[in-house]
Amino acid sequence: MQLSPRVARIDTECVACGCCATICPRDAIRIRSGVIAELNETLCVGCGRCAKECPAAVITIVERRSA
Questions:
Q1: In angstroms, rounded to a whole number, what is the distance separating the alpha carbons of residues 66 and 12?
Q2: Are 45 and 4 spatial neighbours (Cβ–Cβ below 8 Å)?
């Protein structure tokens, strides 16, 4: 599977409200221990839905770093 050129980044200011996890079409985000959103970069396609939905504006879509 080829990775998309873009990926989400979740800032440490995340309050784990869960809005991003609910809207993600690939289930790439989960709320861990009720305190932080955790991103599975392999599943993320960089669509930007999570960034648009985030009420705290702590998610950005960036160019994926090459391995």
A1: 23
A2: yes
What is the value of pTM for the model shown? Answer: 0.89
- In this structure, which amino acid lies at residue 63? E
What does the alpha-carbon distance between residue 51 and residue 20 come to, in Å, rounded to a whole number?
Answer: 7
What is the identity of the amino acid at 64? R
48 φ/ψ angles, rounded to the nearest 5 degrees: 90, 0
In the chain, which ranges are continuous DSSP H helix? 19-23, 49-53
Q: Tens of pLDDT along 14-38?
A: 999 999 999 999 999 999 988 889 9
- Tell me the two tokens of residue 54: 């985030």
Task: Supply 15's token pair.
Answer: 């309050």
